[in-house]
Amino acid sequence: MRSPAFFPQADFSFHRARKTGTARFVLSVCLALGLSACSVPGPGGAPDGIHDPYEQTNRKNHELNRALDRGLVRPASKGYVTIVPDPVAESVSNFAANLSLPGTVVNNLLQGDLGGALQNTYRFAFNTVFGIGGLGDPASELGIAEVEADFGGTLHVWGVPEGAYVELPVLGPSTERDAAGRVVDLFTNPLTHALPKPEKYYGRAASVASKLRSRGRFSDTVDSVLYESADSYSQSRLIYLQNRRFELGGGDDDTYIDPYDDPYGELYDDPYSE
Amino acid sequence: MTRRNLLGGLMSGVALAAIPSGAWALSADGAKRLVDLIVADINKVIEAPTSEAAKIAEFEKIFVRYADVPTIARYALGVDARRASAAQINGFTRAFQVYVSRKYGRRFREFIGGRIEVQEARAVKNFHEVKTIAHLRGEAPFEVAFLVSDRSGRPKFFNIFIEGVNMLLTERTEIGSMLDRRRGDIDALIQDLQNIG
């Protein structure tokens, strides 16, 4: 999943790579589905499409994430983009993105998106060979873009509801469904199982570096949300949810507000008024 | 964007502005022409080797020329707009315009070396959606959609969606939080908005 430019996320995956058996995988899917099934807003219970019953806990995590960003991630990202020449940093990011592709292909397939799976497989093969192990991205220049997919999206396709909004410690904004998806995605990439020990950590390190680069390059935008907005928690929540729903293709025309018919934005405030 | 395209765009903008616009006068093509003009102006600001302050000033001009600022501002103020006096609404609209220009104008630094391409337009509900693709250096292209209406009396855009994140809702949340912090004092909000950034 790409971190878009307008996206406040101190998004760090320090999850360890580990050996897993099938049983463990199945267990985590059950956990994921159980978790995702647990929270759906009642009628009229989600003004503006935001369902946030854990707001108190979420706000605590948000403060933790902000402190972590201010103290560690933000300075580290500034250092990274200042010290490392951009072509090098870009190659590292390409490398990380390329290594994550097999996991994306698994999710393409789970979502029944054969075309996406083929395109991503082709992209992976092309960049691995002609991009020298994925350091370059010649596929993008030929218009072979990544068809993004993750297990949170797979759950969406399978009909699992979004669940409540959650802000996870360290990982940042998410939903119950996406949080479950992240757990499963620790295991969906076949490369994590196929690669021998030192090599499998290269991808992880590159992925951390790639996130540092995004945080550094869009530093002002992220700063404006995290440190300059009146309520950075509600801004992050709104931006995450809108962007995520857009990514998942849920954005139909009904999400379009008409300020001429509804100048005060009240439509959502009183569902009983009509 | 060549100079000739730009000139052509400007001319069609003049023509566009001259059309007396009834409620349904705006076509999908008209909406697309408006966004063509906006994008031409934005691309020009991105390319120009000017200071950040100059870019912000340019962005404010673009915003005033092409956006339905009063409608956007009133929506951002939300239900509080109902209890505001006419003077407060006017004051807020002006302050909001300055605030938006600074907030979004400062983002132009990240767009340097990038460009925006207009795609297609289509009618949605009572307005038009014009999709564009933003190409930023070293980033996968992403979608920026403009919503255009002429219900203000002239064709103007009233909302922007950047990868699904829309300006109306984002700003209403932000302005709402600001008002909460000031215990609902609209005059204090107006004062502070002009000093942000």
Automatic annotation (TrEMBL), chain A:
Species, as recorded: Aquicoccus porphyridii
GO cellular component: membrane
Coiled coil: none
Family annotation (InterPro entries): MlaA
Keyword Lipoprotein: yes
Biological process (GO), any one: intermembrane phospholipid transfer
Keywords assigned by UniProt, alphabetized: Lipoprotein, Signal
Family: Belongs to the MlaA family.
Region listing for Disordered, in residue ranges: 252-274
Protein name: VacJ family lipoprotein
